[in-house]
Amino acid sequence: MHHELTVPREAAGQRLDLWLASALEGCTRSLVQRLIKEGLCTVHPGTARAGRALTGGELVTLEVPEAEPMEAVPEDIPLTVLHEDEHLVVIDKPAGMVVHPAIGHLRGTLVNAVLGRWPDAREPGGEAWRPGVVHRLDADTSGVIVIARTAAALAFLQTAWAERRVTKRYLALVAGMPRADYLSCDGWIGRHPKDFRKRAIRPEGEGDAKEARTTFVVLHRANGWSAIEGRPVTGRTHQIRVHLAHLGHAVLADGLYGRSRTWPLHVEDGQVALRRHALHAWTLKIPHPAGGEMTFEAPIPADLARLLPPGIRPKTA
What we know:
- The chain is an alpha+beta fold.
- It contains 6 helices and 14 strands.
- The chain folds into 3 domains: 2-63, Structural Genomics Hypothetical 15.5 Kd Protein In mrcA-pckA Intergenic Region, Chain A, CATH 3.10.290.10; 81-162, Pseudouridine synthase; 167-305, Pseudouridine synthase (2-Layer Sandwich), CATH 3.30.2350.
- It has helices at 16-23, 29-37, 110-117, 151-162, 239-246, 302-305; strands spanning 2-6, 41-44, 59-63, 81-84, 88-93, 142-148, 167-175, 182-185, 189-191, 199-201, 214-221, 225-232, 279-287, 293-297.
- Strands 4, 5, 6, 7, 8, 11, 12, 13 and 14 form a 9-stranded mixed β-sheet that branches.
- The termini are far apart.
């Protein structure tokens, strides 16, 4: 695939390989470096070198060869099933499980497990490496996720997501104690200008920035941290994590957007409290392909529940 890009002014000072990896979906830094080495990248004016410092305004071209298609392999992996019918399955995804195969994660993913249990889920079509996947959760985010079992169900659910006819509720444990019980963030989200792993609040209409909106309800305040219900209206990559960090209340143990990987560090028994960011896809309300609506809830996992008082529930309004 041929890419032709003009380096924006705000990218001045960045390395060529890092900027390309952040600007192109699916391109890792190692892939970009290999393509530059193979002569598949040009910079005008100047010379294409991985470590070249950009000044802004350069015209960069990159040829990315078509990748060999991946196909998910069925695997016998235990799953916690919240609902199953002929149209779809709803799963409580554990923290640490990647949703679909990718470079570096070809086995052990949710899709591998789904195909091992429901071979017909391959029928919906689309990419062979993520059959039936309607939406995604970050690897370390636990909770409710839906997989379509038929092509018709996949198309129906994708349309429902695109038209924002789904209602999502997340539980997040966050740093600090917000003064208000209700918060909102409307910051547009795009790729971070300096770190290809991250997303960031960007000016409206700038680059790949897209509209993003999340509202939050404070459920519990503790000593230096709080439990918050996140209600995303849109569905951008890392949206809740980016918006909470922007509001000054980063998700606990979020090594990408927070200040510490393991804060709060310990609980009463001296054990590490959190080994992943404290975000859980709590409930999901969707229109069903066969008619009507259904709501699914994934119980709060033990690593988060141990930090919370009993009885915390999603808000109904």
